[in-house]
Write a structure and sequence with these properties.
The chain is α+β, with helices and mostly antiparallel strands. 19% of the residues lie in helices and 38% in strands. It has a six-stranded antiparallel beta sheet. A two-stranded antiparallel ribbon has the order 3-4. It has a two-stranded antiparallel ribbon with strand order 9-10. Strand 3 (41-45) and strand 4 (51-55) form a beta hairpin. The longest helix is centred in the last third of the chain and has 13 residues, at 86-98. It is globular, with a radius of gyration of 14 Å. The two termini are 24 Å apart.
């Protein structure tokens, strides 16, 4: 599991209804950002040597210096990341601003452009 951050337009990221980021908007935005690559799937090797694969339309890789620096999943009109690094929180905030959304944590707290948590 882990702690999640969400790029959302809803009043609270977990709400069933509310304004959404469309898949078309996300694909169009990601195409303008050379650090983002919509892959639709990700693979990792477990400590036991097993290959684990996750497939999800809109799954997006954030690349820094040629390496994967984070992952965003696109589901139900929002983007989410688990346990993002400090740099990824800042990147996610920039994405949220560009999409007219906000960056919200699992417990409803918001984040600013410097990646600092703002309590509601």
């Amino acid at each position: 599991m882990g702690y999640g951050l969400h790029i959302t337009r809803r009043a609270h990221w977990s709400d069933e209804h509310g304004p959404e980021i469309s898949a078309e908007e996300w694909v169009a935005y990601a195409a303008t950002d050379p650090e983002l690559e919509i892959t639709g799937a990700a693979e990792a090797v477990s400590p036991q040597g097993e290959t684990i694969r996750m497939a999800s339309p809109g799954l997006t890789r954030w690349v820094q210096g040629g390496e994967t620096a984070g992952w965003l999943s696109f589901q139900r009109g929002s983007l989410s990341a688990n346990n993002p690094s400090d740099d990824f929180v800042i990147k996610m905030h920039r994405i949220s601003v560009a999409l007219g959304a906000k960056l919200e944590g699992d417990e409803g707290e918001l984040y600013d452009a410097a990646g600092r948590m703002i309590r509601r």
